[in-house]
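Reviewer 2 asked us to include a model.

Predict the structure of this chain.
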Amino acid sequence: MNLTQELQNLQNKLRANHPEDIKAVMDQATEDLVKSGLVEKALKVGDQAPNFQLPNAVGETVEFKKLFKSGPVVIAFYRGEWCPYCNLELRTLQKYLPEIEQFHAKLVAISPQIPDHSLSTLEKNELTFEVLSDVGNQVARKFGLVFTLPEELRPIYQKFGIDIPAHNGNKTFELPIAATYVIDQNGIIVQGFVKADYTQRLDPEEILATLKNFPVAV
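Predicted model (structure tokens):
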């Protein structure tokens, strides 16, 4: 079963427990985000990726341009440890990490969470790749991925026990849309997957297919 199928199964399971009125609000919010045009404005294939520095889960600074020393970089933007779809994606990426590294590629995940919650994400999902904290969504904003969670969704999230301000260390309710990028050693985006629907993610097999085109592959 691939990631797309697993995500669909997860969605079916979660939605089965949601009342119809809550599902309607959540579906409308996703539809509105799709119609907002944010995806079309995000960085895409052929664009230059911005340089940045972010702390990892233990507070050490990771500089983006230094990740390119051995090969391309794969960046997965995720919403937070509270998102079951994100956790499923990260666990799946971990399973594929040995294959990704065979192509001398570096994998990093980025969310707006404060480092403590990034550490929780890393430990909970047993991740061995870098999990970076983009507090304030400064990097996600450079990629054109940031949106504000609609007010009508906030009480629903709170009902689910999701406290976004506590996770992110601010009260903006800003989040990145789901996105995965493969970036070559010149900093050029060679693969981009950006979706307003947070239940959809790039399958790692597609990442591998892109990495196979790099001359550094072994």
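The mean pLDDT is 95. The domain at 3-211 is CATH 3.40.30.10 (Glutaredoxin). We have added this to the supplementary material.
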